Amino acid sequence: MPRSVDFCVDSPARVEQIHWAFSEEGYWQARVAAAGGFGRLDSLLVEPDGDVTVVIVHDLHPDGLPGPVAKFFPRDWQVVQDETWRPVGGGLVRGEVSIATHGAPGGGHGTAVLAPARNGSRLKCTATVEFRVPLVGGKIEGLIGRLLAPQFSMLQRFTADWIEKHS
């Protein structure tokens, strides 16, 4: 059964700075490299209205995964991460993220709102993780769900650092 998770992550970077970074190919290349280089930027489309759509393809191996998770994944598998970020007015940027696995029984999707905050911005997320394996799927979904907030916190720190170095 799918597991939903809600969380918020703060950043010292302002909404417009983060949205600008998301429109830069150099940002995504650096982000992929910082995540271990297992992925590649497949496409980046920046529309005149400010919409940004990015697709990253990760070629992964289950070697570094926890034992209960690793045994359900093939030796070589691919994860496609599709993100769209669009300004929605009022200084807000809305994000939609989907993760599709090819060769493994899981995936996820989520929505996010990037809003101004007192000392930068706040990313408020709702994500759903699904791992379709009888008996252990719920435990794996719980594990992945618990990792989402720390992962997004790390991404926000990376983004703020990248902005500081490139603006």
Can you lay out the helices and strands and say which pair or pack?
Blueprint: E1 3-11, H1 15-22, H2 25-34, E2 39-46, E3 52-60, H3 67-70, E4 77-89, E5 92-102, E6 106-117, E7 120-131, H4 137-166
Helix pairs in contact: 2-4
Provide a descriptive summary of the structure in words.
The structure is a single chain. This protein has 167 residues and is an alpha+beta fold. 31% of the residues lie in helices and 44% in strands. The chain has 4 helices and 7 strands; from the N terminus they run βααββαββββα. The protein has helices at residues 15-22, 25-34, 67-70, 137-166, and strands at 3-11, 39-46, 52-60, 77-89, 92-102, 106-117, 120-131. A 7-stranded antiparallel beta sheet has the order 1-7-6-5-4-3-2, with helices on one face. β5 (92-102) and β6 form a beta hairpin. α2 crosses α4 (137-166). The longest helix is centred in the C-terminal third of the chain and has 30 residues, at 137-166. The N and C termini lie far apart (43 Å).
Quickly count the helices. 4
Number of strand elements? 7
Rg calculated over all Cα atoms: 16 Å
Main sheet characteristics: 7 strands, antiparallel
Low-confidence stretches: none
The largest sheet has its strands arranged as 1-7-6-5-4-3-2
Q: Report strand %.
A: 35-45%
Assign an overall shape: globular
Determine the structural class based on helices, strands and strand pairing: alpha+beta
Binned, the helix content reads 25-40%
Mean pLDDT: 85
In sequence order, what are the helices and strands, one letter per element? EHHEEHEEEEH
* N-C termini distance: 43 Å
